[in-house]
Amino acid sequence: MDIERINENTFKVYISYIDIEERGFSRDEIWFNKDKSEQLFWEMMDEVNDEDDFEDLEGPLWIQVHAMEKGLEVIVTKTHLTKDNSSSNSLFDMHERSKQNFKNGASSSIETHEYDDLAGFFEDFEEIPSEYVYEFANFDDILPLAKKMVNYSILSSLHHYNDKYYLYIRYINEANELVNILNISSIIAEYATKSPTTIHVIQEYGKEIISKNVFNELNNFF
């Protein structure tokens, strides 16, 4: 496990899936068993206390989790209460990519949340949608993304509407899909933005260019 102090109140921890398994946890347990995720989190915090002298972790914490290819990156900030006993968000700004990854539906927005522990964070994963619509200004912007997605098999279609291109992604709602959703969303976020336009509007008023297997089709022809 690697620990990096960002400032007096914030630190970043990276733990590989191999390390997680060596501690007696499976990947599915960390994502879907709140008791196990909480146990792992506080084990990690104990090590932070021992190795980085980050004391007094009691009280409200801002927690941000990134699912990486080979592990988890956790950023934790100890918050302070303002005079009205509300948490100040000046210490921690949620990364833009995380806003895109965990956006609850194509037309809604996400706010930075406060959690007392990692288990509370995972409760919100129940709200992760299974359908996403991404927007591209130009067709050529999709091509480098297709090269990166060659190893992923996902349900997808490509559409043209109002002079823009829209990528529709749908996941099967299964527990083992969560890490895959986070990884794929993170990659797509490098090339596209979430669209406020729903797939139903695009399908009704737009034109379908590729009906399925978008990335495979693009890689076959470009």
The total number of structural domains is 2
Could you list the spans in which at least 5 consecutive residues all have pLDDT below 50?
A: 80-118
Please give the largest β-sheet.
Answer: 5 strands, antiparallel
Compressed to H and E, one letter per element, the order equals: EEHHHEEHHEHEEHEHEH
What is the oligomeric state here? single chain
Helix/strand-derived category reads: alpha+beta
Total of DSSP H or I helical runs spanning 4+ residues: 9
- The beta-strand count equals 9
Order of strands across the main sheet? 8-5-7-6-9
Mean pLDDT, all residues = 73
What is the beta-strand fraction? 15-25%
Helix content: 25-40%
Distance between the termini: 41 Å
Organism: Psychrobacillus insolitus
InterPro entries: MecA_C_sf (IPR038471), Neg-reg_MecA (IPR008681)
Keywords: Competence, Sporulation
Family: Belongs to the MecA family.
What topology does this entry show?
Elements (H helix, E strand, L loop, with lengths): L1 E4 L4 E7 H6 L4 H6 L1 H19 L8 E7 L3 E8 L17 H6 L16 H6 L7 E6 L5 H7 L6 E7 L2 E7 L7 H11 L4 E2 L4 H7 L1 E4 L3 H8 L1
Antiparallel strand pairs: 1-2, 2-4, 3-4, 5-7, 5-8, 6-7, 6-9
Helix pairs in contact: 6-9
